Amino acid sequence: MDCHQDNSSQGEVLPQPNEFQKLLQSLPIRKSLLNTNLYLYDGSWIGESCLESLIDFQQNFQAQDTDIILVTTPKSGTTWLKALVFTITQRFQYKISDENHPLVTTNPHGLVPFFESYRSIAAGMPRLFATHISYTMLPESIKTSKCKIIYLCRNPRDTFVSMWYFGHQIMSKLDPSSQFPSPEECLEQFCEGVIHYGPFWEQILQYWKLSNEMPEKVLFLKYEELKGDIIAQCKKMADFMNCSFSSEEENDGVIKDIAKFCSFEHLSNLEVNNQTEERSVPRLDNGMFFRKGEIGDWKNLITTSMAEKLDQFVEQKLQGSGLKLN
Ligand code: A3P
């Protein structure tokens, strides 16, 4: 039934759709793996619950030159990046030896908000924000100001597997009676690009190209590189954010301490990261953001032939870009 219709037989006039509802009606729609609505907006698949605040953000957010924006593919290590960037940029204000350091009492997502909730945060310095959206979708003021973007992605095999487990957990909270799709079904939809903020390869390629064209604006990182040499990557991030570590700090082991403080082992064992928070619907346990934190866990969920198919698919999408994700 058309919801704007005047149902005159019953004498009722249904409410007219507002601008947002009209927009929704005009967008291509698909079901997400969680069986919720995804809308194709500005070239990306966006969940209905995020879309309205995203549009508000696009229209109203004013970037400042000192802002740092963390952009990530979902399940690529966003929580880790938030913790690292917060600790690095705020290290003069909050010593990690302090037992009340914000990361000890607050989950990283509470310290570096996603843009969807940008209105609710008190600004620190520099202001830190996070998002999963493509460069195309970012507000103009982010593109034209001197604010900086750190982009993080991850090997698609592990990203996919992390996403599958995350989705599985959310589904069991949302609707315990329904079954989350199998890895095979999910992989198909993953490669079709019909996942939250997908298609993932288009977004990765956008930020990859920008990081080459404007290295002072966009820093491109990979989860595997963080795992491989966290000290070098912390230095790279600090240099990029204009808050380089001094040689004195380096000699005093400050970078090593920050890396340890933000490690999976430390963060996942903190009490705060094992609690449930009224963040959104469904309620998310902070612990859901810390599963294994390993490279290569895909082996425990998908077959080698599924992984090879995914590799071939991704290789084809990245062809000619010079970017390798495996
Ligand atoms: P796994 O599911 O493979 O364990 P996001 O933060 O983007 O949602 O990504 C979540 C993934 O990052 C999960 O991967 C999670 O375990 C991992 N992760 C979270 N904190 C981490 C940390 N401090 N170090 C390394 N990996 C971390």
From TrEMBL:
UniProt EC number: 2.8.2.-
Could you give a GO molecular-function term held by this entry? sulfotransferase activity
The residue ranges of the Sulfotransferase domain are: 65-322
Keywords for this protein = Transferase
InterPro entries given in the database record: P-loop_NTPase, Sulfotransferase_dom
Pfam families the record matches: Sulfotransfer_1 (PF00685)
Family to which the UniProt record says this protein belongs: Belongs to the sulfotransferase 1 family.
- Name this polypeptide is given: Sulfotransferase
Source organism: Thalictrum thalictroides
Q: What is the lineage of its organism?
A: Eukaryota, Viridiplantae, Streptophyta, Embryophyta, Tracheophyta
